[in-house]
Design a protein that fits this description.
The protein is mainly beta. 0% of the residues lie in helices and 49% in strands. It has strands at residues 3-7, 10-13, 18-25, 34-39, 46-51, 58-60, 68-73, 78-83, 92-98, 109-110, 114-119. The strands form two sheets. Strands 2, 4, 5, 6, 9, 10 and 11 form a seven-stranded mixed β-sheet that branches. The protein has a four-stranded antiparallel β-sheet with strand order 1-3-8-7, with no helix packed on it. β5 (46-51) and β6 (58-60) form a beta hairpin. It is globular and about 40 Å long.
């Protein structure tokens, strides 16, 4: 059974930092692109960042560019999202997603989400 389990969410003041982790089990994703999405209350789920299977190529939503950094450790089958200079607008449930392709495509696997709350 494939599982993606996020951790690292919590409550932080504006300007603070959090590091999210996504641990995969049940299969390896070392050859697959992965990413992060988020969903704020009353809004649709939106793309945050993605990373190639090798970790060399990354892509970010304009709203987080320069503040968030996506990375991965294929040896640990784990995806990360370093979030700096957090803003109240970043408050959302953050989801890890994994494709089954080397390039970016429609995610096939999703985590259960971790709550990030940024207070002003």
């Amino acid at each position: 059974q494939v599982q993606l389990v996020e951790s690292g969410g919590g409550l932080v003041q504006a300007g603070g930092s959090l590091r999210l982790s996504c641990a995969a089990s049940g299969r390896t994703f070392s050859n697959n692109a992965m990413g992060w999405f988020r969903q704020a209350p009353g809004k649709e789920r939106e793309f945050v960042a993605r990373i190639s299977w090798s970790g060399v190529r990354t892509y970010y939503a304009d709203s987080v560019k320069g503040r968030f950094t996506i990375s991965r450790d294929n040896a640990k089958n784990t995806l990360y999202l370093q979030m700096n200079s957090l803003e109240p607008e970043d408050t959302a449930v953050y989801y890890c997603a994994a494709t089954t392709t080397t390039g970016w495509g429609l995610p096939r696997y999703w985590g259960q989400g971790t709550q990030v709350t940024v207070s002003s």
